[in-house]
Structures are given as structure tokens and as C-alpha cells.
Amino acid sequence: MHSKLLFFCLLIPSTLSSPPNIIIMLMDDMGWGDVGVNGNWAKETPNIDKMAAEGMLFMDFYTANPLCSPSRAALMTGRLPIRNGFYSTNAHARNAYTPQTLVNGIHEYEELLPKLLKQADYKSKIIGKWHLGHRRQFLPCNRGFDEFFGSGNCHFGPFDDEKTPNIPVYKNDKMVGRYYTNFTIFKGTGESNISQIFLAEGLSFIETQSVSKNPFFLYWTPDATHDPNYASPMFHGKSIRGRYGDAVMEMDYCVGKILEKLKELKIEQNTFVFFTSDNGAATYRRRDGGDNGPFLCGKETTYEGGMREPGIAWWPGSIPAGTITHQLGNIMDLFTTSLTLAGVKPPQDRIIDGIDLSPVLLDQRAPIIDRPIWYYRGNEMMAVRVGAYKAHYWMWTEFGNDPLKFTFCRGQYIQNVTVHDQINNTEQPILFNVNRDPGEKYIVSPKSREYKTAMAIIDPIVKAHKEALEPGVPSLNYCDVAVQNWAPPGCEELNYCLPVPESNPKLCVWDH
Amino acid sequence: MHSKLLFFCLLIPSTLSSPPNIIIMLMDDMGWGDVGVNGNWAKETPNIDKMAAEGMLFMDFYTANPLCSPSRAALMTGRLPIRNGFYSTNAHARNAYTPQTLVNGIHEYEELLPKLLKQADYKSKIIGKWHLGHRRQFLPCNRGFDEFFGSGNCHFGPFDDEKTPNIPVYKNDKMVGRYYTNFTIFKGTGESNISQIFLAEGLSFIETQSVSKNPFFLYWTPDATHDPNYASPMFHGKSIRGRYGDAVMEMDYCVGKILEKLKELKIEQNTFVFFTSDNGAATYRRRDGGDNGPFLCGKETTYEGGMREPGIAWWPGSIPAGTITHQLGNIMDLFTTSLTLAGVKPPQDRIIDGIDLSPVLLDQRAPIIDRPIWYYRGNEMMAVRVGAYKAHYWMWTEFGNDPLKFTFCRGQYIQNVTVHDQINNTEQPILFNVNRDPGEKYIVSPKSREYKTAMAIIDPIVKAHKEALEPGVPSLNYCDVAVQNWAPPGCEELNYCLPVPESNPKLCVWDH
Ligand SMILES: [Ca+2]
Ligand SMILES: [Ca+2]
User: Fold this and answer.
1) Domain annotation for chain B: domains and CATH numbers
2) What is the per-residue pLDDT across A347-362, written as a single tens digit (0 to 9) for each?
3) Which residues contact B398 (CB under 8 A, 6 or more apart)?
4) Given an 8 Å threshold on Cβ–Cβ distance, is A59 in contact with B42?
5) What ipTM is given for this predicted complex?
6) Does the annotation count A131 as an active-site position?
7) Residue A37 contacts B where some CB pair is shorter than 8 Å
8) 3-state class of B470 per DSSP?
9) Does the active-site annotation cover A9?
10) What pTM value is reported for the model?
């Protein structure tokens, strides 16, 4: 009895009476090195840096996949995309996402975070990019969210409402307009006030819920830092690093406003906030893209630049201020940690990959939790990190025969590492010590004692993982022009339904 | 009269009665990305980060040369090595320094900072590595310093007191022992308490001077972060990134202790402190070296990784806390700024390259001062930065024919940029926008309007620089085994004089 109570106190301090509100701020394609506190030379994020100073900074935080959709599916389910189905078997180790031709979305079988939080009476809202399926049955309000403002797809085109419908923007379960028409992004200049709308939606939700007796869950996930970047006039042209930096500055402003609102409403001591990004900076955007700091390559790859993310936890009074942790964290942990803080048991009938980070968050003297980080690309486990060591079982930068064309790893060349063909190293994985060598430049010799010692630890972990693995049915295999956003829910009222072409389902093509 | 007074007030606030003490903390081979506040993932520098939070952080601070000796000569003289003589003409564009075979040192003609500060009654001490000539006439106490604890040379070997004497350690003008014998560094483990001795020397000097009516100048320049790294038992084995990180942790501890001492003595409001490093991280040390963050290559090169340095200014009450600046700064500016703060006029009979940063330091609303950054390698101007643009006139990573051997740029490959031969681009310089592209990965097309606009600004600046340039007599051309530290001043008292071999002067060989 006594020990049980103690356990409960440790997990949910100062919230015995009610579980905390939860806010997950998920950036789009923002790199580890894009925030000031992680060293960005442009220092455009005073509010995010302040958030870190008031909270806990994760130096070793990861996404579950180097691409938007699977990463977001992992966050919502606490499970690797290989389990929750957000991958493709169309070819080996292919990155796949949810364009508007995609037939499927997140499986009904999957239990999503907002739905589970209902057990503790949470009111949930998603603002921004959903990306887990844009057809009616997959939309947020049909998968556990009470409210939705944003879109089922990316904001990027090309769209013309003829061959391809412009992307609808939803308020809850009905569209209220489309990107580039009703929600304008000026193509030439990248000006748009969409982020300010997302901010206002967030602030309004927080205000409304602050007077409710129910806790809230806000999943705030704007996409301004995704190519093509946009920013409102207040930030347009302000960054010394161009349009991408403008978007970062606006995101930082929004983060500041949201935390300020919590303080203003005096609910900051009862709100757990986490800031991260869905994948590494899109290095293929060249000098218009984000920054992965000292890490190798970027988005789409399973090198550190593709999957190491900014990670900041904030909860004044509960998470000690100004702390830094080397706990290996993963976006999937936000699922498990949120449920734990809410007092809800994660699903017991399936493997959950996310771990509960609350012991580390709430006590800076708590020991580091030992756990692996898996790096998947589509249906293939490319690499794993255990402690300081990362073993690459497969490697691939991207397709292409030109040895000087390293689109995802521009300017970086490491022999046998930044490879253009899919290289199978499963017989003898390529090993790095990513603490001493975060840039994955210096292969640990397979002949060394260091290699043998590390692999003796890693091998059984990989073996156990593979043995227990039951891949989910892949959701990202089939595409069909007929499923595009021709006639989304609500289009009738707006008189904005487009004629639906004949169905022509086929295998989606995933190039890399 | 009125305007003159105002001018004085602006420059030396709260110190009308007496000029401030000055402390320059110069690290050895520490990279831009090695400090937490610049994003290091290991976050080993809480005290340096705190210093930045209490002071002003320079994001665009540079050294004057990518190697120890010329960088330090530039700091002491406020002048580029090409002017003060700390370069070699033995071959084109060669890096050169002061090994113990070097015949010369800093020219008598050069006016050094501690000597000039005498005009304002400063008492000066250097602790650590001098590196501007180890023969009697070049030693610190013969060149303006009142006190000296440290060495004229690097601590690295090989030495055996037979073919090559072990490096003497001085107290003022006499040796008190030698490295590896009297001042032990355990070769196998890298354990040594030398940094703690340097710290104690610094703290003791500060304490003694704090009760004097004279201001002091402390040049604190330990070399623990230079290969081979060493750390005292308190830090040995503590870093997750190995021996180099251990040394960083100890440096951070020392920085903290020095600032703490100033506060304890209540002289922090009358002490200007600047923290930086003499050149970029030694990337040739592979995974045992430091970190240059997102910048290209490292020590010995004129890419950003070789010359962009951490830069933190601290002066509570005068420098606004928690500020960040994009002012282009240079190690030579510490010469001019220190003199200005001391109320001493810089020499008027020669070109001084360092500018007075005090307007920017003392007023965060002050406009950025427009000034170029010169990147020299030996006798050649390799590149220049003006605003956001950096133009490479010459490029060279290092010698070597193996296209996969990029010792100074390991893992980095940019066509026509990371070149193995000396490439002459003077006809059409290779241009980067280092704000949008800090990694120097994306060459601005010479056909673009951007190129033409930038070069129209840069060209006349370079032309004026070259026209005004009168290279100093090179100090780093001649070597002689007879000038090694066989019989340094004070060796008689210690009975530690070694027999001097026959003089055999010849041109030094500088490989890169
Ligand atoms: Ca993304
Ligand atoms: Ca150095």
C-alpha cells in the first residue's frame, strides 16, 4: 500500500487531484541544429531557448522515422511504423508517406493517444498537419480527437483543382476551405498568415479548456518549416538565413505565446509541454533548408541528421528547470509518457515501443533508462542505437549514379557510409560511437575489442527485436487518383466539391 | 568639450575613475561547436554557458589564423600575421608556428598588448602557452608581461632531453622545471594536474591584484584541449566523448572558478572578460578531437571550421546580460578593445587590424560595425568575409593524392572546394553566403546577380587591402637544432642545463 502510493507520487507530483494538461508541439522538417539552444548560429529562437532554460533539454531525442507520416503515426500510437502499418512493401526500405492519392490511413486497430486519453476525460485538439490519412474515416475527429483545425495532407503542391485538388483545410469534421485559395500562401514570396491562424486556434482552445474541469490535450503541429516555407508579414524577410529562418522565427514566436498564455492563465504548473520535430532538416533543400548541426545527412535518411531531433520538456514546478539529459528519447515516448501522466494504462494487448520518460523528467537524479533507438526506412530496420553505439545494418543515402550528387547528404562523403546503393551490412554492421563521433565519420574497426564488446550487447537486442516483430499490414502501398480530395466532407455547404474521376488503384511508387 | 566627455562615458561606463581589469581566456584548439551554448551535444560547459547567459555571445567571432602561433601573435599585436611577421615564405600559403627549433620570435618592432597597457599602469600576467618565441629575448617578461607562468612552446613532444629537450616551464623569467618530468602528464592515460596549477596561478594573481590600486591584465591560456589532451583526476574519464571532452570539462570548471573569484572579490563589475579559442578544432584528431558544429573542415584550413571560434564577452553591469550579437569579431579586436577600455591609444604608426568592439559590447542597440574578416594561410590571403558573403581566392585542404583522405576535412567533400591541390580562384573567387550556408556547401553561381552584387562590394575592399599591405619580415622561416631549449634561463640553479649541439640553421619545412 505504502509503496504503491509512493510510486504514484513519483509519477504524478503535484497532480494527485487531476492529471496535467498535455501539449505536444511538433515541428515539420525542423533540424536538431535549428534551435538556438542546440547551437544555431542565427539564434532565431529566444522563446524556445527560454523554454529549455525553464525545462529539460534532451540532447539525444529521436523521431521514429525520417519522414513526416510514419513519424506522426508513431507519435499517435507509441509504436514503430513497422508495427502500426505506416510503411510500404512496394520496394525494399522505401520511405513512404500520405499524399492525397493514398488509399489508406492509420488502421482502425491502432489505438491513438487522444482516444486513450478519453479514459481520463481529456478534451483533445489537433491543430495543423495530421498526415495519417485524409479520407473521411481516417480524419482526426474520427480517430479520437474532439477538435481539428488543419489539414489531412501537406500544404505543398502542385495543386490546380483540376488534375489535383487543392488541399482542404478542416475545422473539426468539415472542410472550411482549401490551401492556396481560401488559405493563401503567396507562392512567389512565401507570405501567409496560416501560422498565426494556427496560433490563435491554439490559444483559444487553451483559454476555453482552462476553465473546464477536464484536462486537455493539444497537439499543435504547424507546417511552416516544411518546404515551401511560409511566414506572416511580421517575420517575412527577417531571418539572416532566408525564408526557412523566417518560418523558424515565427514558430519560435508561437511557442513563446503558447507558454505565455499558460502562465497568464496560471495553469503552467499543471501543463506538460513537449517540443520536438517530426524528422531531420531537409538537406535536399540546399541552402534554403534547415540545419542538422554536427550530424550526418538529413531527412529521408537513417543517419543522425535524419532522425536526431530537438527535444524540450517543460512543466514548471515538476520538471526541474535548466536541466539537460542524455536519456535516449523517442517521439513514441510521448505517447507512453502522456498516458502515464494522465493515469491511463497503455494498451496491454500489443507491443508499445514508447517508454515512460516521467522518472527522468521528474527527477534529475534518476538513472538513465536503458533502451534502444530503432532506425527504420520502410520495411527495413536500417540501424539501431544502444548506449553510445549505433550499428548500421543497412545503409542508403538515395538513388543516383553520380558520385558527386549526394542530395540528402550534400557535402558529406564517408566511404562505405554515404552510399548510393542499398548496402547490406547485416553480416557485419558498420558501427559508430555517436557520443565521441556524432557525425558518424569514424567507423569502429570490426577487428577492435571495442567493436566486439559493443556488438555483443547489440546483437541480442536486435535478435530479440526481430523475433518479436510482427509487421502490421502496410498502409502505404496503394494509391488511387479517385481518393484525392475531390469532395471532402463539408464541400457541399461551401459549393466546393470537384468531380471525382474514375477509380484506378495501383501500387504507389516510392523512389527512395 | 561636452561631446568629448560623452564619448568617454560611452566607452568606459562606470569606470570613469579607473579602467577595468582585463582577462582574456584563450583556449587551445577548441572548436566553435565545443561549448554547450554553441550547441555541443555533450553539454559539458555549464560555466561557460552561464558566462554567455550573463554576458554577450558572439556568433561570428573569428581568429586571425587557423594555427596557434600566428593567432596568438595577432592577439598580442592587433595585427594580421602577414603584418607582424608570424608567417613563412618557405613555400606558398604554408601554415607555420613556433616549434623549439625556431630561431626567431615576435619582432621587437611589434608593440604588444601588455606593454601598451603599462601606459595605464596595468599589471600583466600570462599563464599557459606563450608560443611567440621561446628564446630569452622573446619570452613574455621581456615583451611587456610582469609575470609569466607557463611555457614558450607547446606541451607536445616527442621530447627525450637527448635529441630534443623537454619543454621548460617558466615562472617569470626563469624555468622551474620541464614538461613530462617536473610537470607530469601521464602519456598513457592523459592525467595531469597542470590545468589546476594554471587555475591556482590565475586565482592567486587576481586576488593579489584585487587589493592593488592598479588594474590588471590576465592572459589565461591553458593548453589542455590541445593534442595530446590532459585532465586532472577530477575530470579524467568523465566525458562521454573521451579525453578531449575531459579537458573541455576541466576548462569549463576553471572558467567558472575564475568568474566566481571575481564575484567573491566584488570586482566583477570592474573586470572585462573575454573567452575564445586560438583556432578551430583539430579535425585530424578524428573522433578524439573537438567539434566545429555545422562549419566546414577545421584547424589549419581557412574554411569556417578552421577559423570561426566561440566568443563570449562578460562584464556585469556594463555588457548587457543574455545578449547575442552577429557583429563580425576577430581575436585582433581584443587588442584594440582592451586598449580602448584602458584609455590607451593604439599605435598610430602602423596598421592595426583589430577594431574597437566596445560600442557593440556596451550597447545592444548599437549598429553592427562593417568590417572584413581576412583568412590567411602563411603569406597568402586565402579568403575574405564581408557581411554574409565569403569569397575564397585560394583554396586548399592539405597535401595528398588520395581522394578519400581528407585529413582536415574528414567526411566532407564539396567539389571544387575541399581541394587537395592549392587552387587559385583569384580570377573568379568561389563565393558563399555563410549566413544561409554556414557549411560552405553551396557555391553562389558566378553568373548570378547575387554573385555580381556581392563581388562588387568585396572586390574594392580586397584591392584596398592588398595595396596597403606591407608584409612584415617573416619570423617563421629559419630553424636550428641549437636554439632548442637546451639551457633555458634558470637551468643552472636547477642543475638542468643540457649540452648545446652545434648550430645548423636551415629553412624550416612547413608541409601544409
Ligand atoms: Ca516532416
Ligand atoms: Ca591552437
Assistant:
1) 20-370 (3.40.720.10), 380-468 (3.30.1120.10)
2) 999 999 999 999 999 9
3) B300, B301, B406, B407, B408, B420, B512
4) yes
5) 0.91
6) yes
7) yes
8) coil
9) no
10) 0.94
